[in-house]
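Submission checklist for the structure archive. All mandatory fields must be present; incomplete records are returned to the submitter.

[x] Identifier: Schlafen AlbA-2 domain-containing protein
[x] Organism: Imshaugia aleurites
[x] Residue count: 490
[x] Sequence attached
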Amino acid sequence: MAVTKAAVDKGTLTQKTPILPRDVCVMIASYQVPFSIFEFASGESVDDVFRRINSGGRKLSRQELRAAGSTGHFSTVVRRIAAKIRGDDSSSDILRLNEMNLISITNKDLAYGLSIDNIFWVANGILTKEQVRESRDEELVGDLVAYMVSDIPPSSRSEFLDDFFGLSGNEEASRKRREDIELAVQRRGTHVVIKDFSRVFDELVYTLSQSNKSFTGLLFDSPVARAPRYFQVVFLAFYTLIVKRNKVPGDKAALFRKMDGSYKSITVAEGGAWGADQRVNAVNAVVGVYESSFVDNNNTDPAAVHWITQLENILGQSYTEQANYDFKQGFLLLDGSHTFDTESFAQILRTCVGIANIRKSTRGYVLVGVADKASTAGRIEQLYGVKVRPYDRFYVTGVEHEAQAIGKNLDQMFQLIVEKIKQSSLSDDLKGHLARNIKSVRYYDLTVYVFDIEAQRDPSHLGGTFYERAGAQLEAVPTTDVVRLVRRYS
């Protein structure tokens, strides 16, 4: 503070207004902040002191203590899956403090962040609001992941989760459980475990959306306060059928009927530990009830892949990382002519260049079939009679109506876009990457095209012009400034 005051006195620093009264500044500057200094020989000692500090005052929940300092494969998978479901996921583990409120869990009285009432666990009656605030959703995800990756599914019990996260001591049994779960996740690959979880979760979310009921509303005859173990059984039954047996829901109407009131077929332990055999038997019993409504998955159509969680995460991440994401309502003009919008497509390609040029190792997306203005969504509904699906401040419109308007099916339209990418004047590396990695994904009943962008070995350009993104703005890089852009890749 003394250095700052001296800079103000010298005029090298201009003080902003309004200025706090001197007596208030004195009170702030003279406030006593107690602190202690510890010297540590190991990271384990830091974690131990952290946990001891949190033994008094407002205690952290058991799961918050487990997660503190746990950086293994298992804890990483659990953290990332839980964040994706809540909607506070980010593409980077580093987030500016002034952006944290944009993805913080909040309530209806605050005009920012993620409404806790809309988070999947609360909206579907699986966990209470307070349980989500205590990170009980991560406990639930941890139990599910442990079952998914283990050759012999473990019991669902607090002590085992302590071991999996490395919170227990160094007893041989605890250490072995920790090593086994780490090896199991590593063997499968964190990416594959997250992908499998998302596949099953999205199919379950889609099934619930088709039933027009919440999870507990569908399973139970009367309202219940919470149902985490019932969710475990149903999710793991879906996992067994979708991932292990490579099936997909076939007769959805029949599946709704079988899920309706199916809590009667589920036996779960109330409170305390839930034995491994009990959980396996409960899952197998529900598999037997649901299986006849599933069929073999012989469909390799990329448009059949649900991207419900992934797409919603991208929409959420765009608040804090605007430069990495962009959204377009479609490829056609909205003047009623059903004409391909050449300029809009060129802008998509310029945006892809700008995202690729943010820096080395950048990853970003342009989603086509998503409007960010209510007026645009309204115009599409007016022109094509599309039932737009809103999510937060976005409106998912899909591209089916455009394909139909130009006399093509989705496969033909997808090929048309790929050919336009190949015929463009994009730099070769980025052109090849986009043509290979563009995706056609499903968001509920709508198809969205995803331009999947990665930074290339060298700066990218379109027709010799380099572009870069500053927030949501796209700017051409002046010729005199190209050297600065090249330095990012050196």
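[x] Structure attached
Curator remark: The first strand starts at residue 105 and ends at 106. Residues 190-211 form the longest helix (22 residues).
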